[in-house]
Design goal:
The protein is of the alpha+beta class and 615 residues long. It is 21% helix and 30% strand.
Length: 615
C-alpha cells in the first residue's frame, strides 16, 4: 500500500456538493439539472463524478459481508440488534454502483449519508485503509477516461462501472458577457465560454449575453430576459429581448427577388419561439421582444423573416417581413389566442446588435483566470498538478503527475503539465504533440499557473512567502501594465487557438507577444541563484528557446507569429539544471494579436459592394 494519500480529481465546491447530494438522495430536480450542466462537456468534472461514484460503490462493497448477514436476519432480529448497520441493498440484491447521470436521467441513487453515518470502529479503519488502495487503482483507469473518452472497468471482477456513454454534443458556446446579473446565481454560466446544450435556460436580470450556435447563428440576449435553448437551430424566448444574426450567402438577393421566389429558395436557418409567435429567419438579422403578457414584436434589420402565430403551422398563414418591417402579435381579448395586431405606429424596441469584439488583442491573463480574453479577470489560476481551479495563490511545491492534464472547464486553455525531460518525451497538447529535448529537471513547480494583477493587492503587499507578490511591482516586465503570468519552473500551459477562432469567427489570432523574464529574489534571499529556461511551441514545434533567463538580462520581448491553421500555443518554463529554488519566471502583458478573419473580410467586402450597388 502506498504511503502517500491518493486524492480524487479536483472539483469545485458546488460540484462536490451536488454529487454528494445525489448520493445522499436529497438532490432536487433543479440541482439535478445544474449537475448535468456542470458535467456536460467538462472533462475534469466527469473525472471527479466517476471517481466519486466508484469510491461510493467501493465502500458499499467493503461492507457486503456484514450486509449479507443482515439480509439473512428477520426484521425482528434486525430491530433487536443495536449498533448494526442499517439495511442497504445487499450484494445479492442488486448492483451497488450508482449509474452515471446522462441526459434526461432520473435514476434514484442509494443514500450515501445513511451509509456514511453508520461507519465506525474497526469497520472505519478497515474501510479507510482499503479505500486508499481502491482509489490508487482508480488512478490508472481515470487516466484512460481522460484520453479515451470512456470509462474503464475496475480491476475487481465482481464490480462493473456502468459506462455513461458518449456525452451529448453541445449546440454552441457563450461568446460574450457584459455586466450580467443573474436571477439565480446557481443557474449562471460557470465560465465566459461555457458550452450549452438542449434545455439550457438563461434567466438574465440585466446586462448582455451573446451565445453562438455551432450553425453560425449569434443571439444577443438583453436583460431582463428568460431564454431556453430548444435545439441546434432554435430557442424559446419566454420574456425579454434578443437580437439574432445569421449569415446568409443569399442575403444580397432579398431586395431583388419576388417574395414567392424567396419562400421556395431560402431555407430556414434559425427560429425563435415565443408564447404567442414563431419567428423564423430566412437568412437575415432580426430582433424579437416579448413583454409580460407574452405579446411579441418582431423587427427585421436585414434580410427576410417569417412570422407565424404560435401553434399555427397551416400553409400560407405566415407574415413575411423584409428589411425595416415590423409586426406585433398579441392575444385576442375574447379568446386569449394569438393574433396579428392591427397595424399601428409603435416605438421600435432598443435592440443591441453587436457585442464588444476583441479590440485587436485577446488577453491571456483574463483567459487563465477563467475569462474569454476580452475582460480584466485576475488573481485566479490553474493547478498544474491536478488541473483544477485555484482561487488563492500559495507557495506549495508540487511534484509532477507525469502526464498532460486537459482542462475542459476553460475552453481556451487546452491543458497544463509539469515537464521533466529525464523521464520521457513530454506531451505538449491534447492532440498528442510531444517534445523529447527537455533537460532533466527536478520535476516540481512552486505555486500555480497564476494571473496576477498589475497592482499587488493591498493585503498581499510585502508578503515574502508568496513569490509572485514578493517580487514587488514587476513594472519592468509589463510596460502595458496588464499584469503577470506566473510560470515558476517546472511548468507548461497550452492555449487552444481553435476554440478562440470558433468563439470569435470574425477575428483570428495572428501573433503571441509579451515580455518574459526572471525576477531577482536575491534582495530578499541572498543565497538565491535564479536561472531558468523558457520554451515556446506552436503545434509541438519549437519556436522560441531554450532562452536562458537571468535577472541581469531582464526582460526579453517575445513576438511569435501565428498562422490561420495553427491549433495550439504552448509556454514552458524549466529549471536550468540548478534546481528551481527562487526561479521566479513571469510573462508580462501576455496577449494574442488578432486580425479580421478571411471570411469576415469577404463578408465586409460583399456588404460594401452590395451597399454601393443598391439604389
Amino acid at each position: 500500500m502506498s504511503d502517500n494519500p491518493v486524492k480524487l480529481p479536483a472539483a469545485d465546491s458546488e460540484l462536490a456538493r451536488l454529487v454528494e447530494a445525489m448520493c445522499d438522495g436529497t438532490i432536487t430536480p433543479d440541482e439535478g439539472q445544474r449537475l448535468e450542466s456542470l458535467l456536460a462537456g467538462d472533462r475534469n468534472a466527469q473525472l471527479f463524478y466517476v471517481a466519486y461514484l466508484d469510491l461510493h460503490a467501493q465502500m458499499q462493497w467493503m461492507t457486503r459481508d456484514q450486509e449479507s448477514e443482515l439480509c439473512e436476519k428477520t426484521p425482528d432480529e434486525l430491530s433487536a440488534d443495536e449498533g448494526e448497520l442499517p439495511s442497504l441493498d445487499c450484494w445479492d440484491c442488486g448492483s451497488l454502483i450508482p449509474p452515471i447521470i446522462t441526459e434526461s436521467s432520473s435514476t434514484i441513487h442509494p443514500p450515501l449519508a445513511t451509509f456514511r453515518s453508520s461507519l465506525g470502529g474497526w469497520l472505519t479503519s478497515y474501510a479507510a485503509a482499503t479505500v486508499i488502495t481502491a482509489v490508487a487503482i482508480l488512478g490508472a483507469w481515470m487516466y484512460r477516461i481522460a484520453h479515451e473518452g470512456r470509462v474503464a472497468k475496475t480491476p475487481s471482477p465482481s464490480i462493473a462501472v456502468q459506462s455513461p456513454g458518449p456525452m451529448p454534443k453541445p449546440f454552441g458556446r457563450i461568446s460574450g458577457l457584459a455586466d450580467c446579473q443573474w436571477r439565480d446565481p446557481v443557474t449562471a454560466p460557470a465560465s465566459d465560454t461555457e458550452p450549452f446544450f438542449r434545455g439550457r435556460k438563461y434567466v438574465l436580470d440585466s446586462g448582455l449575453m451573446e451565445i453562438t450556435y455551432d450553425s453560425g447563428a449569434k443571439v444577443i440576449l438583453q436583460g431582463p430576459c428568460v431564454y431556453e435553448v430548444d435545439s441546434a437551430d432554435s430557442g424559446f424566448l419566454a420574456r425579454g429581448r434578443l437580437t439574432a444574426r445569421v449569415a446568409s450567402e443569399a442575403s444580397s438577393r432579398l431586395k431583388t427577388e419576388p417574395l414567392a421566389a424567396n419562400r421556395s429558395s431560402l431555407p430556414a436557418r434559425f427560429t425563435v419561439r415565443t408564447p404567442t409567435a414563431t419567428v423564423t429567419d430566412l437568412g437575415t438579422e432580426f430582433g424579437v421582444d416579448v413583454d409580460a403578457s407574452g405579446a411579441t414584436r418582431s423587427h427585421v434589420f436585414r434580410g427576410l423573416v417569417s412570422v407565424r402565430l404560435a401553434g399555427d403551422d397551416r400553409p400560407n398563414r405566415q407574415t413575411l417581413l423584409r428589411e425595416n418591417d415590423s409586426v406585433r402579435v398579441d392575444r385576442d381579448e375574447s379568446t386569449g389566442k394569438p393574433r396579428f395586431a392591427p397595424s399601428q405606429v409603435e416605438d421600435r424596441p432598443a435592440f443591441v446588435r453587436r457585442m464588444a469584439r476583441p479590440d485587436g488583442v485577446l488577453d491571456l491573463l483574463d483567459i487563465v483566470a477563467g475569462g474569454n480574453g476580452l475582460g480584466q479577470r485576475r488573481e485566479l489560476g490553474i493547478d498544474p498538478f491536478a488541473g483544477g481551479r485555484v482561487t488563492a495563490f500559495t507557495a506549495e511545491e508540487r511534484h509532477g503527475a507525469g502526464r498532460y492534464l486537459p482542462i475542459g472547464w476553460r475552453p481556451f486553455v487546452d491543458g497544463v503539465f509539469i515537464p521533466d525531460g529525464g523521464r520521457k518525451a513530454v506531451q505538449l497538447d491534447f492532440a498528442g504533440h510531444t517534445f523529447d529535448a527537455f533537460p532533466h529537471t527536478c520535476g516540481s513547480t512552486v505555486g500555480s499557473v497564476w494571473a496576477r494583477a498589475a497592482a499587488v493587492p493591498n493585503n498581499l503587499k510585502g508578503n515574502g512567502d508568496l513569490w509572485i507578490y514578493a517580487l514587488g511591482g514587476g513594472e519592468q516586465f509589463m510596460p502595458d501594465h496588464r499584469g503577470l503570468l506566473a510560470l515558476h519552473p517546472n511548468v507548461g500551459i497550452t492555449f487552444n487557438l481553435v476554440a478562440m477562432r470558433q468563439a470569435y469567427r470574425d477575428v483570428t489570432p495572428t501573433a503571441f507577444r509579451g515580455a518574459v523574464g526572471i525576477a531577482d529574489a536575491r534582495p530578499q534571499h541572498p543565497e538565491a541563484d535564479p536561472m531558468a529556461d523558457v520554451w515556446i511551441f506552436v503545434d509541438g514545434r519549437l519556436r522560441v528557446g531554450p532562452t536562458r533567463l537571468r535577472p541581469a538580462e531582464n526582460p526579453r520581448r517575445v513576438d511569435v507569429p501565428l498562422g490561420p491553421h495553427d491549433r495550439f500555443l504552448t509556454l514552458v518554463a524549466t529549471d536550468a539544471a540548478n534546481g528551481n529554488e527562487y526561479d521566479w519566471v513571469v510573462f508580462g502583458d501576455p496577449v494574442l494579436d488578432t486580425a479580421p478573419s478571411r471570411s469576415d473580410q469577404s463578408n465586409r467586402k460583399a456588404h460594401e459592394t452590395h451597399r454601393t450597388e443598391a439604389p
